[in-house]
Amino acid sequence: MKVKTLAILLIVLAVLTGLVFVVLIQRTPREGKRELGSPLLKNLPANDVASVAILEAGGKGVQLARMGDRWVVKNRFGYPADFQKIVEFVRKLRNAKIGRSFEATKGVLERLHLKNPADKNAPGEEKGTAIIFADAKGKTLVRVIMGEPMKGGQGGMFPEGQYVLLGNRKTVYLIDKQFEGLAKTPADWLKKDLIDVKAADVREVLCVAPDGKTTRFAFKRPAKGKDLEQVHPVPGKKIKRTSLNRLAGALSALRIEDVLDPARVKGSIGMEHSAKLEYHLFNGMIYDLYPGEKCKEAGTCYLKIAVRYEPPGPVSESSGKGGDEKKKEDAGKQVEHKAENLHKKLGRWIYKIPQWKHDALMTDLESLLEKEKKK
After folding, report:
1. Distance between CA atoms of 126 and 106, rounded to whole angstroms?
2. How far apart are CA 54 and CA 101, in angstroms?
């Protein structure tokens, strides 16, 4: 071989070796350095998200959807969702930053529980939780599979990060946020706050028997700021003030645990014999509460609610000059309109409430009386 030809071959070999080295450098180390500390979902178009699905192995999962100007839980009969909870979840996921990345081999997917929950051939313990963001047309925007949390601290007991898989990619990421306590049932995403009325705003509370005619008891405040007094006192019987205060404050921070299908018949859960508690407020708003006669089983208690309005006092017929009477009339119309809207919002549902709250909705006078001391 000529010296000139050998020299050319050596030069070509050197160039090829250099190109291979450059490609290897670009494919691995630089990619890792570029991803370290960068957001996991920096390109998620949050404003385009119209639905969120949370799916896990063996469960029906959660289906959240935007309906007009509100979010609902689709697989909970379209009941309003906790919008703030959705916002916080999306924000946490968007703010998650990448700490490490490595190849998604079969062994890694099995060990870190990152297999698709819809994969019928994968064992349940190897599957993760899929989070799917879609737009109004149902097009998937982002798909994330949450796997095993990375734990650290003393004894490796505390979650410090989460292993995730994006879409159908072949890279596993360790992010700096953890979602071990992610709510995975429809009831977890319901808007739980129902009513919040201070006891001092209750002018009168009375109980009507299931026949709709018999009044079991009635208490009324002589004026705002005064204590509730029994309308028809029973001779020789004394009201237990703590029980009465508990009854009067039952509308304060009233939260639900779940809702039932609105089409479900009340008789199927034993609510056809429910007494009615009427809470009359000073502004004319009236909340009619129908607590189930008793909890069917420990911790499963039901409640139905209706809302209406009655003028809190006689309306003056004098025209006046558009002063206080006109203001009262306008204020009354506003409260009446609010009552109508609340009834549309609350009236069609049967709620599950905590047993301790159900126990506060006392519907018999005996529960409000002081027990006689034994001689």
Report:
1. 11
2. 24
Q: What are phi and psi of 64, to 5 degrees?
A: -105, 140
Which distant-in-sequence residues (6+ apart) come within 8 Å of 219 by Cβ?
204, 205, 206, 228, 229, 230, 231, 244, 248
Rounded CA gap, 300 and 121, in Å? 37
> What pairs with residue 348 in β-bridges?
none
Average pLDDT over residues 119-135: 91
Dihedral pair phi/psi, residue 104, rounded to 5° = -85, 75
Burial status of residue 44 (CB atoms within 10 A of its CB: 0-12, 13-18, 19 or more): middle
Which segment of 6-20, 116-130, 158-172, 254-268 scores lowest on mean pLDDT? 6-20
Output the pLDDT for position 34: 38
Q: Collapse the DSSP code of 199 into the 3-class scheme (helix H, G, I; strand E, B; otherwise coil) and give the result.
A: helix
pLDDT at 314 over 90: no
Residue 290 token pair: 């129908």
How many Cβ atoms sit within 10 Å of the Cβ of residue 286? 17
pLDDT in tens, 84-118: 999 999 989 988 999 988 999 999 999 999 999 98
Asked whether the beta carbons of 199 and 245 are under 8 A apart, the reply is yes
**Do residues 346 and 304 lie in contact, with contact meaning Cβ atoms separated by under 8 Å?**
no
- 277 — phi, psi (to 5°)? -105, 125
Which of these, 256, 248, 255, lies nearest to 198 by C-alpha position?
Answer: 248
Residue where the block lists tokens 């509370």: 205
Cβ–Cβ < 8 Å for 270, 301: no
Cα–Cα distance for residue pair 137/142, rounded to 1 Å:
14
User: Which residues 6+ apart lie within 8 Å of 187 measured at CB?
Assistant: 76, 257, 258
The pLDDT, as a whole number, for residue 324 is: 78
CA nearest neighbour of 175 among 112, 230, 238:
112
Residues paired with residue 81 on neighbouring β-strands, in sequence order: 190
Q: Is 270 left (phi over 0), alpha (psi -120 to 50) or beta?
A: left
pLDDT, one tens digit per residue, over 136-194 is: 999 999 999 999 888 776 655 677 889 999 887 789 999 999 887 788 899 999 999 99
Give the global pTM: 0.81
Q: What is the pLDDT of residues 337-351, one digit of tens each?
A: 999 999 999 999 999
